[in-house]
Amino acid sequence: SGSLASLFLLFHTQVHFNTWSKLKDVILEGKDAFISAQGMRLFEYIDSNKQFAEVFHRAMSESATMVMKKVLEIYRGFEDVNTLVDVGGATGTILGLVASKYPHIKGINFDLAQVLTNAPFYPGVEHVAGDMFIEVPKGDAIFMKWILHDWTDEHCIKILKNCWKSLPEKGKVIIVEMITPLEPKRGDLFSNTVFAMDLLMLTQCSSGKERSLSQFKNLAIDSGFLRCEIICLAYSYSVIEFHK
Predict the structure, then answer these.
(1) Which residues contact 50 (CB under 8 A, 6 or more apart)?
(2) Which candidate, 57, 51, 59, 53, places its Cα nearest to that of 3?
(3) Which of 34, 123, 171, 179 is surrounded by the fewest CB atoms within 10 Å?
(4) What's residue 180's pLDDT?
């Protein structure tokens, strides 16, 4: 049903506490906080520590369920899609929700092979292993939630160019991410949430960050897309479309 409990548990693991303690090194010396704390990058650590991986993936799945239920209430962009590829879709939670509402959609859940090992069966969803930095499966539309904020602009452009190649003429990428406000307001819940997430990216993925609308537009243009637009808002998350 979706819950914040697993996310709360993730944020209170010793792994997270140790990484936050290295924030000073990031700001003053430009170091990678996660490497300083754990000796390797976040996603390498997830691959090497089964217990932490279970906590991490459960937190992502449960929180994603909450957000996606809201997205599916207000976003109509899936109605004309026949094949939807979820890039970095983990165990397929999101596509399972989308396919349950839109059973005409063929869902392709795309992630690394080790992530898909325990992926459950969802009607209408096929699990496909691969690397988004090399190639992305073809589809009418490509979906990404909480993926781009993990990476530098250069990495994002590489991913998005692979998406562009796999889309038909007038295809689209559907992105769910936070958008940083131009003028943060003191005491404003939305601003506080976005910038707290930005700090989280600074400590957990030193190459990651939350972005402004203009930064998303730059990513779209630099990747070959014609336009970028915000379609709707689900809690603190914007649903953004890049059109080919």
Answers:
(1) none
(2) 59
(3) 123
(4) 93
Copy the structure tokens of residue 211: 């972005």
Q: Return the closest-CA partner of residue 111 out of 126, 131, 97.
A: 131
| Pairing state between β 83-87 and 172-177 | unpaired
Active-site residue, 243 included: no
* CA 165/CA 169 separation, integer angstroms: 10
Give the 3-state secondary structure of residue 137: coil
Are 79 and 238 in contact, with CB atoms under 8 Å apart?
no
For residue 142, the model assigns a pLDDT of 99
Q: Which of 104, 127, 149, 155 is catalytic?
A: 149
Number of domains into which the chain is organized: 1
pLDDT digits (tens, 9 = 90+) for 153-188: 999 999 999 999 999 999 999 999 999 988 877 778
Judged against a pLDDT cut of 80, whether residue 1 lies above it is answered with no
Chain mean position to CA 189: 21
Distance CA 179, CA 191 (A): 9
| pLDDT > 90 fraction of the chain, expressed in percent and rounded | 76
Rounded to whole angstroms, the Cα distance separating 129 from 112 reads 5
Q: Which domain holds residue 232?
A: 4-243
Find the CATH number of the domain harbouring 198: 3.40.50.150
Given a cut of 80, is residue 41 above it in pLDDT? Answer: yes
- 81 by Cβ neighbours in 10 Å (0-12 / 13-18 / 19+) ranks as buried
Rounded alpha-carbon distances, angstroms, from residue 42 to 19, 45, 82, 186, 205: 10, 5, 34, 31, 7
The predicted structure's pLDDT at residue 22:
93
